[in-house]
Structure formats: C-alpha cells, structure tokens
Amino acid sequence: MERTIQACSGKKIEVKQGQTTTVVDVEGGQAADSFVRVRFYDEADDQKLRFAVIVTKTDGHWVFCKHKERNTLEVPGGHREPGEDILTTAKRELQEETGAIDFSIRPVCVYSVTAPWNFDGQETFGMLFFADVKAFEKELHSEIERIVIQDGPPSAWTYPDIQPYLMEEVQKWMRMEGIPE
Question: How far apart are the C-alpha atoms of 82 and 146, rounded to whole Å?
C-alpha cells in the first residue's frame, strides 16, 4: 500500500488515483514544489527509518505534547539514535515526551515526508506507531512543557501539514484493527 497526501495552506481538495490520495491546494495557485508530501507505506528498508511518531491515547482520549518553546501541540515523536532499533526509538520518545511509564505500543505503518524546507527537499522516512498509555510519571524531564489530554485533535498543530495526516492514518488503522477511537 502506498498513500500520498500533498498538503498546503489554503483550501484543499482531495484527489484519489488508485491507491493514492492527494490533497491539492486550490487557492493561491501554489507550485507543486511548495507542497508537503506525506506518503504511507506498508514497509521500508529499516536503514531509511530516521524518525518515530507515536499517536497516543490514554483512557480513550488523545495525548499531545506542548513544547517549551512553542505555543502549539504535537504528537510525541523524534529522531532515531545511532544503533537504536525503531521500536526502541518510539518507546524512548514516548517516555521522554509524555512521561509514559506503563503503556502498550504497536507499529502502524511507514510514513515519509517530502518538503522543500525539510532535509533539502529529500524524502525522509519514519515509522508511525500507536500507543495506549495506562500511567504517566508525575513530571516531565525533557523539552516538553506539558502534555495535553483531549477528545480530538488540536486546533493549533506544530506541524499542520504533516501530523493531522499521521493521526488520520492511525485512526483508519484503529478502525481496521477494531480499536475504539
């Protein structure tokens, strides 16, 4: 499976071509090279996986992170350290950014992002995970100021052209797996 999203500020239109879904900006006539492309794959070479993003719930509510230097919310996640397998990256990032101490975590799919401002426009890959957290530490010890637990997605995303689509992909996966949203 490969699914592509092209995101851009302004009004968007969703175009489906076979297995590919594309969201195209219809306002402002922006050039294709200004688009952010988010793609989803069943698998990829492990060496390409540079990031882990963990869409997270607790007690039926979504968990988001508020970074100390930003006024927006984001899904927990981060860079893979040298020598680390991608599941270890996901667990470490979830613990660091949310304080999760008792949780289950499952891989959903591989995703990629291509954007002119990101890694010189090169396609970068990560693994998308879903976690269900049962318990959190009392305080955080990272760049995250606080976690926010709410019923739906944030109105102000840190990465609005990427993370809403990652969350949407996890929600589709949850429905396929029979996991309550």
Answer: 27
**What letter does residue 81 receive in the DSSP assignment?**
P
What's the confidence (pLDDT) of residue 137?
94
21 strand-pairing partners: 16
Strands (E), 44-169: 49-58, 61-67, 73-74, 77-79, 100-114, 124-136, 144-150
Rounded-to-integer distance, Cα 2 and Cα 133, Å = 29
Report the C-alpha gap between 181 and 173 in whole angstroms: 10
Which domains does the chain possess? 2-177 (3.90.79.10)
Phi/psi of residue 43, each to 5°? -155, 165
Q: Is the confidence at residue 8, as pLDDT, over 50?
A: no
Rounded to 5 degrees, what angle do the CA atoms 141, 146, 147 make? Answer: 110
Strand partners, 132: 57, 104
Please give the angle made by the CA atoms of 71, 75 and 79, to the nearest 5 degrees. Answer: 105
